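Researcher: Next entry in the queue.
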Amino acid sequence: MVKTVAEVMSRDPILVRPDTPIQEAIQIIAERHISGLPTVDETGKLVGILSETDLMWRETGATPPPYITILDSVIFLENPKRYEKELHKVLGQTVGEVMTTEHIVTIAPDCSLQEAARLMHEKKVHRLPVLDESKKVVGILTRGDIVRAMAASNNDVE
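Model: Structure for this entry, 158 residues:
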């Protein structure tokens, strides 16, 4: 029998808001042993994801783009916008300043677990916020959830 995301996802995931202090979010991630937090607005709609990757910038710092100077002019050899984004993540004090807001991969609760696993693998994400029809977060599906479902299926067969 094909399992759906709704059968395996964690319900009532821990959520943060864009105005949550970044130190508070770091504490939640560390204490709960989770790798990311869906970020929602006041209506519960997803507006971003705060991941461990977003937080790594605080430790590594931002790398300035390579450039050359010619006659007192600076010519960037790479788009300086990337540096601005990195710097913003390094200096951010709230979740909203540090979280990822672009290309967030989500899934619906009625999708198959196989579809979710394929999506996570193709998009190289570790978690999928599960959204209802109104784009509100109703759960979260992690790679660990899928592995536990696989183990449970193997136990059912034996």
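Model: The chain has a mean pLDDT of 85.
Researcher: Noted, moving on.
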